[in-house]
Fold this sequence. Notes:
single chain; alpha/beta; Rossmann fold; UDP-galactose 4-epimerase, domain 1; 2 domains; 7-stranded parallel β-sheet; two-stranded parallel sheet; 11 helices; 15% strand; globular
Amino acid sequence: xxxxxxxxxxxxxxxxxxxxxxxxxxxxxxxxxxxxxxxxxxxxxxxxxxxxxxxxxxxxxxxxxxxxxxxxxxxxxxxxxxxxxxxxxxxxxxxxxxxxxxxxxxxxxxxxxxxxxxxxxxxxxxxxxxxxxxxxxxxxxxxxxxxxxxxxxxxxxxxxxxxxxxxxxxxxxxxxxxxxxxxxxxxxxxxxxxxxxxxxxxxxxxxxxxxxxxxxxxxxxxxxxxxxxxxxxxxxxxxxxxxxxxxxxxxxxxxxxxxxxxxxxxxxxxxxxxxxxxxxxxxxxxxxxxxxxxxxxxxxxxxxxxxxxxxxxxxxxxxxxxxxxxxxxxxxxxxx
Length: 336
């Protein structure tokens, strides 16, 4: 695990996820040695990282994976103290909002307490690595103001938002109380072809690709009137890295600043697949309605623009078409 000369090293929790894979690619391109912490499970496939782990010039040289759970402080400590990285990017946690109502305890255990355990470990290190926690727009829930900025009052309306609010506030406390370089990237909804199909955006684009190919005739969804601030995950990991390079640790809203109804997302996806009338292909299923739905979640990323020079490079039209094209290609490969 010896790092190449003059390179930085980073640890990423949640490395096998959408954001983790994009961040890993970016850091390796920048000359980092990347260590990922992953949960051991019966499933060993890591499709988002296969192009890296199957490359002998990368895996075992610039990229290393280590098994540990966020509730296993002993294993986490052993890994972090052995590597003593320059930067720690904390992306892991139960991130599905709907599922957080079904498994609220484990959501809070990994998303909230997992963050606290990491910060306690870093507090004992000298020098302490820089730390970035990825927050969520769900911490605002039903906000008093729109758009939201870094000073907007937290008002979460689901267990996931509560857990993320704890993590964001705890990160601030450790920065202010112990002088650690700790920052929050409060990320609004960000999607990509690597998004899990359990999330509504990828569920839609995957279904559209299959409907266009004649493999299914409809997709079941919940409330089409919900609105979100959707961006591209590849853009958002750039903001995370830039936040760690700034001379001072701060919190940043990472968002596009544009609020879009889910219905518009649907229209773009179906139109790109050549289906003008999408309504016959969509069924509303009450099972997919949330017990409490956040409202007016749209972010003001002015601080990230002013201090980091960051801004989104992919608009919603480009994002949706990118995802539909990727799902169409994946569907075709499965047929070949």
